[in-house]
Sequence to fold (215 residues):
Amino acid sequence: MKEIFSCTQCNASGCFTGGGTLPPGCITNKAVDSGLLEKSLDLYRNDPLVKKLAITAAQVEGQYYCKATRVEEIIYFAQKSGAKKVGIATCVGLIREASAFARLLKLNDLEPYGIACKAGSIDKTELGIPDEGKVCPGGFEPICNPVLQALLLNQEGTELNVICGLCVGHDSLFIKYSEAPVTTLIAKDRVLIHNPAAALYSLDFYSKRLKKKLE
Fold:
């Protein structure tokens, strides 16, 4: 298979420094040549929602980078973007965290509306998942239903939706069907106490097994 050059193989960071030397095959040059850079700029200039979110995100970054927690940044982002009603798509196992976040939203004059992943209470077997494929076979085990979470929050008219610990893949489905913009508060990782980046920082120590081809 031919290896394709991408940003994860680059150490030049010319795009970050500005005016730096761009390596052969640089994505920036590719974006210019294909017209995709100009297409992205057209969206920033001409799509009101894209422009508002981009400017708001830059404002939050500029004011609070390395100063505010992600919880605070989400609150600032909601306030500055004009979002009043904030949806929380939470894992049922992180209800306490989602509830604490909801209280903070209320304290900052925002209106939270949370939906847990098990809403609908449909057994996994109804989706075609065999009993032996359950976490705990032999009994009722409801599916995580991120599509329903998104549809319910759409119905409520939320203006910003926040993911709180949805499983890998379930978060993808939620983002796909959410009508409101989506950001993430917690990326679930039970093994690393919801700090998935730790596996990357410890590749030479505790996470050596990740260097082997996953089976």
About this structure: The mean pLDDT is 92. The domain at 69-215 is CATH 3.40.50.11840 (Rossmann fold).
